[in-house]
Write a structure and sequence with these properties.
Number of strands: 18
Strand order of the largest sheet: 5-13-12-11-10-6-9
Distance between the termini: 32 Å
Bound molecules: pyridoxal-5'-phosphate
Structural class: alpha/beta
Strand content: 15-25%
CATH topology of the largest domain: Aspartate Aminotransferase, domain 2
CATH superfamily of the largest domain: Type I PLP-dependent aspartate aminotransferase-like (Major domain)
Oligomer: single chain
CATH class of the largest domain: Alpha Beta
């Protein structure tokens, strides 16, 4: 055994091969050296295990080169990487929510270098990062002013801290919701330095309930939270934004509306049921409206606050704003996304998540059939089935999107196939339904259906050779 080990080539010898030279040109000497150390260590273990399969390669430099290059390829795969979404959930939070428009990507790429983030080009003096996107948001929502921060959860914390610090914020008991990931309205309010003043009951809250706590001075602000991620039906009643604005105006307290979803086009243009929009809350007189950049707005992760200029200015001056500061790349992507809304006739076709939501069922069926055709031509059995997806991102609860999928069993079962598709390059994520892997085509980006077919073919061929 010790004899076999002594026949392993030295690291120096391995590093002097032309193949090693090519690898070093790529990733540098240190990583190549470490990769050969791994190869040598693997060979030592194989000898110790008396593994016969490697016995013939102990002295073969080509084996070490191949092993080292496999180690380097594995290490080169980024931790965070692109995934093909075949789940049918358009704003899949675990898969990064909204896929961005080309225009947004281009803007993000160019501003990732130097930009006029905080520089006034006309005057040659310091500018403000908070000046970007403001005019667009004013035009699109009708608000006087706007502020962009890191995400909507942060925007809500900032709003509550600004209007409620050291005093009470009135919220309906029917709106003390968990937004997701343990982010709960009562805790957000407490952490913002405000105290929660609960009004009404779980199912019914009337304007007089708010009026009572505002009149008594218990609450100096009102928060309305859109129930974006669940539905309440039956014996229910709630105060409208307009009702709250009346109360707020009479008593001089601000009304903040946390809308979340960020829908910017009429819902019917996406074939979806009505969902409140920021422009409607602003028109109804809300002092501030909070929406997310990466839900139905279809942009990068961001929190957008639109509202009355004096209140937005106080938020900008709140020290918390600095902690929630938005990045230049995000601002560029958001601005480019918002700009697309200036052309209402084309915005749906240009923002990928909106296009997916609006996609016609027959077109989806045709894509599923095209994928199935490519697979069947190679002898792979599959089915094209109707399926149901979702909007996702905690929006449109209970609303299903009728779609089409390619469904297959896989040579070693659906779970094994799903795993193989997830772990290869690019990863493809589908759903298991009744022991079949179901790949919904609604959430595929242009050209991805061919990649999916390719990955499935690969999975079938590799398992064919193993069994
Ligand atoms: C999603 C949501 C938020 C949080 O938005 P993020 O962008 O995820 O931070 C806040 N409020 C409501 C009502 C939401 O639906």
């Amino acid at each position: 055994m010790s004899d076999a080990r002594s026949r392993i080539p030295s690291i120096d010898a391995l590093l002097s091969s032309p193949e090693a030279g090519a690898m070093m040109a790529d990733v540098g000497r240190e990583q190549v050296t470490n990769a050969f150390r791994t190869a040598v260590s693997d060979m030592r273990s194989a000898i110790a295990r008396r593994d016969p399969s490697l016995a013939g390669f102990v002295e073969d430099p080509a084996w070490y080169v191949q092993r080292a290059s496999a180690v380097l390829s594995a290490a080169a795969v980024p931790g965070l990487r692109r995934v093909i979404n075949a789940t049918g959930v358009v704003l899949h939070t675990n898969l990064g929510r909204a896929p961005l428009a080309d225009e947004a990507l281009e803007a993000m790429r160019s501003t990732a270098m130097y930009s006029n983030l905080e520089f006034d080009l006309a005057e040659g003096v310091r500018g403000s990062r908070y000046a970007h996107c403001v005019q667009l948001l004013r035009d699109l929502t009708g608000a006087d002013d706007a502020l962009v921060v890191n995400n909507a959860a942060g925007a809500l914390v900032l709003s509550m801290s600004t209007v409620g610090m050291g005093s009470g914020v009135a919220v309906s008991r029917g709106e003390l919701v968990e937004i997701g990931g343990g982010f709960r309205i009562p805790e957000v309010i407490e952490r913002s330095g405000a105290s929660l003043v609960e009004v009404g009951s779980t199912n019914r809250t009337r304007p007089v309930d708010y009026e009572a706590v505002v009149e008594s001075g218990e609450a100096t602000a009102i928060l309305k939270v859109h129930r974006s991620n669940f539905r309440m039906t039956g014996f229910t009643e709630e105060a409208s934004v307009g009702d709250l604005v009346d109360i707020g105006a009479r008593h001089g307290v601000p009304v903040v509306h946390d809308l979340g979803s960020g829908l910017m086009v009429p819902a019917e243009t996406l074939g979806l049921p009505e969902e409140p929009r920021a422009s409607a809350s602003i028109a109804a007189g809300a002092d501030a409206v909070v929406v997310s950049g990466d839900k139905l707005m279809g942009g990068p992760q961001a929190g957008v606050i639109v509202g009355r200029a004096e209140l937005i200015e106080r938020m900008r001056k709140n020290p918390l704003c600095r902690a929630l500061r938005v990045d230049k790349v995000t601002l560029a992507g958001l601005e480019a996304t918002l700009r697309l809304y200036l052309d209402p006739e084309r915005v749906v076709s240009r923002i990928p998540s909106l296009r997916m939501l609006a996609e016609d069922e027959d077109a989806l069926r045709a894509v599923a059939e095209e994928v199935a055709g490519m697979l069947e031509a190679r002898g792979i059995t599959c089915e094209v089935v109707p399926t149901r997806g979702a909007v996702g991102g905690g929006t449109y609860p209970g609303c299903e999107l009728s779609s089409w999928a390619v469904q297959l069993a896989g040579p070693r079962g659906a779970q094994a196939l799903a795993r193989e598709l997830r772990t290869g390059a690019p990863p493809v994520v589908g759903r298991i339904v009744e022991d079949r892997l179901r790949l919904d085509v609604r959430t595929l980006l242009p050209g991805e259906h061919e990649l999916v077919a390719g990955r499935i073919l690969e999975a079938f061929t590799s398992s064919g050779s193993e069994t």
